């Protein structure tokens, strides 16, 4: 990569034909002459390997852009340790928890000046779990594109109050084409305008380096053995799959003659897309593929089909052991030094006999156990170092930086979690009355929450109130809304706290799928326990007090709102009002997120209408002109997806 974007000696010396370089979709002249900070291009490389039935290992391809999948072995190993910890001691399996530390060391080595961020394209991305999980484990800030801006060729993370924080390294999880609309695709809405200029100026490191896609080109794969000989003067240890290049006349003839025996790959595709086995094609399809190869020889390569090994899996449909084709993605991390991770992602195919293992094609994954050597002094010392490293990593925490979006998420996590807790708790009181044959007793409860009161029977009401995800006022909708806000906060909350919301989702979904009725109403009390565990965990955590305050302000605003709806005595308002005053006091002198301001103003307008004038006056004592403290005074931009549905007119 360094050579290709500078002297291009390997091209000048004829080792790689220049047409393969300059016609590659992954080659970007915009980064010519750029040496990344620390001189590192491939900070995290994913090497896809298969083992043939004869035991020989083959390299299928290199992934040097944004290789994914490292979080899954980490997460599943944690589950395995809890379920059955003894094998990891008795079988002497290598500890795989070093990956976040190695990744963070690479971040720190190349960082220019400022904080580390993991850049995600958004919540809807298929790999968002990995983005948020790696941010949590490395102590980096999880950033959305709108959270970053470039000023004077420097990148800044912008918090909810508009304060800028310098960014030194970006672990990006979006493709080059979308990284900077000024430099690449001008239609990109998930990029950061100007970030390439900051990178070219040496003011920020980007992992992995822009332009690495030329090395991922499947045509470039064919030249890797020659690269090894050219640059290192060594012979390759691992073998490439025998590959044919249709741009060469001799290879093209072989491909066309043996099309039914080979596997054809589109050089610019990834994720298992663009892979066609000639044996699966009919006569007409084979003729069409042959013509495409003749018309676009640069677009394809052809390879011998390697009969690689099967491994046993447990078929989720039948529960039976069944063989599947599998490959191994090994991860190589580079900072000051290069490390091969003692783990990897073993992927298997969706169906028996299928050769494509990518998750995008329905494949699954298994944990990968790397065995330690027999007991030795070196191994004992390594275990001691691992223990020290784990203690160090446990103190890693995400910077206490909250963007406008995350301030909104914290606030609404507080509101929705409280809504779940209080509505279930209050409903239990009405439920007992209904069970005592007062079948109309649920109507005041429904009226308080603006729910319809004309249900045919009590079970119908329970289904709508508890389980109907099409009803925005149902408990299930509130649980899911709490989760949607919480999952974005994984780096701040940590997976340990997020799991309480996940448990609530699992409980309510299981009940809904089981045709929940009044007979299993008491199961919902588990959900209130999960909410209590969440709040207690947040209060007891190392989370920054400002972030805690935003969550609990939402929680107690919601409690006051719900209590006033249920017309509880004003004396019961004292405790939540005191809590609200305490948490608002923690933000004294600071600008308030727009969601909090909008929530306070809305509640102050509603309380007098419900007969709580004294409570309105009490809140007004410790909330003086919240509008003057709003971080973004344009409350018309307020996120409508988080709006309270209980008072919606449409």
From TrEMBL:
DUF403 domain mapped to chain residues: 407-566
Lineage top rank: taxon: Bacteria
Residue span(s) of domain Circularly permuted ATPgrasp: 1-303
InterPro entries in alphabetical order: ATP-dep_Glu-Cys_Ligase-2, CP_ATPgrasp, DUF403
Name recorded for this polypeptide: UDP-N-acetylmuramate dehydrogenase
């Amino acid at each position: 990569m360094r050579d290709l974007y500078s002297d291009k000696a390997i091209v000048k010396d004829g080792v790689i034909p220049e047409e393969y370089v300059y016609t590659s979709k992954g080659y970007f002249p915009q980064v010519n002459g750029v040496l990344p900070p620390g001189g590192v291009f491939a900070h995290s490389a994913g090497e896809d390997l298969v083992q043939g039935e004869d035991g020989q290992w083959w390299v299928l391809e290199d992934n040097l852009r944004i290789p994914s999948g490292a979080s899954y072995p980490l997460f599943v190993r944690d589950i395995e340790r809890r379920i059955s910890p003894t094998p990891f001691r008795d079988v002497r399996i290598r500890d795989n928890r070093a990956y976040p530390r190695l990744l963070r060391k690479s971040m720190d080595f190349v960082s220019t000046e400022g904080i580390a961020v993991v850049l995600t394209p958004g919540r809807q991305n298929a790999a968002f779990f990995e983005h948020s999980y790696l941010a949590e484990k490395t102590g980096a800030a999880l950033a959305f594109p709108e959270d970053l801006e470039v000023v004077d060729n420097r990148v800044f993370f912008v918090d909810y109050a508009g304060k800028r924080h310098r960014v030194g390294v970006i672990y990006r999880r979006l493709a080059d084409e979308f990284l900077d609309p000024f430099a690449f695709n001008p239609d990109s809405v998930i990029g950061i305008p100007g970030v390439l200029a900051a990178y070219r100026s040496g003011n920020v490191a980007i992992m992995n380096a822009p332009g690495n896609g030329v090395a991922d080109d499947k045509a470039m794969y064919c030249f890797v053995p020659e690269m090894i000989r050219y640059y290192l003067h060594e012979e390759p240890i691992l073998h490439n799959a025998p590959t044919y290049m249709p741009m060469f006349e001799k290879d093209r003839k072989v491909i066309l003659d043996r099309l039914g025996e080979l596997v054809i790959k589109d050089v610019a595709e990834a994720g298992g897309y663009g892979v066609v086995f000639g044996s699966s094609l009919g006569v007409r399809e084979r003729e069409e593929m042959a013509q495409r190869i003749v018309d676009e020889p640069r677009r394809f390569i052809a390879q011998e089909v390697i009969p690689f090994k099967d491994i046993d899996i447990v078929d989720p449909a039948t529960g039976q052991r069944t063989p599947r084709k599998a490959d191994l993605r090994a991860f190589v991390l580079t900072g000051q030094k290069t490390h091969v991770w003692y783990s990897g992602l073993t992927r298997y195919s969706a169906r028996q006999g299928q050769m494509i293992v990518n998750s995008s094609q329905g494949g699954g994954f298994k944990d990968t156990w790397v065995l330690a050597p027999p007991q030795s002094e070196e191994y004992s010392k390594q275990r001691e170092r691992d223990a020290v490293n784990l203690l160090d990593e446990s103190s890693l925490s995400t910077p206490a930086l909250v963007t406008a979006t995350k301030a909104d998420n914290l606030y609404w996590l507080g509101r929705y979690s409280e809504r779940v807790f209080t509505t279930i708790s209050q409903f239990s009181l009405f439920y007992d009355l209904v069970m005592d044959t007062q079948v109309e007793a649920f109507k005041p409860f429904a009226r308080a929450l603006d729910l319809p009161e004309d249900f045919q029977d009590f079970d119908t009401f329970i289904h709508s109130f508890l389980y109907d995800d099409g009803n925005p006022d149902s408990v299930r909708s509130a649980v899911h809304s709490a989760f949607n806000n919480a999952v974005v906060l994984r780096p701040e909350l940590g997976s340990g706290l997020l799991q309480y919301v996940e448990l609530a989702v699992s409980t309510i979904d299981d009940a809904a799928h089981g045709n929940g009725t009044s007979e299993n109403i008491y199961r919902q009390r588990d959900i209130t326990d999960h909410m209590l565990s969440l709040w207690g965990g947040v209060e007891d955590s190392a989370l920054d007090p400002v972030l805690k305050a935003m969550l609990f302000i939402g929680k107690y605003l919601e409690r006051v709102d719900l209590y006033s709806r249920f017309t509880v005595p004003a004396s019961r308002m004292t405790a939540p009002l005191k809590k609200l005053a305490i948490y608002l006091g923690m933000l004294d002198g600071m600008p308030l997120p727009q969601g909090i301001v909008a929530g306070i103003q809305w509640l102050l307008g509603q309380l007098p209408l419900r007969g709580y004038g004294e409570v309105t006056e009490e809140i007004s004592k410790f909330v003086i002109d919240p509008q003057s403290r709003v971080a973004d005074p344009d409350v018309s931009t307020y996120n409508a997806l988080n709006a309270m549905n209980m008072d919606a007119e449409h």
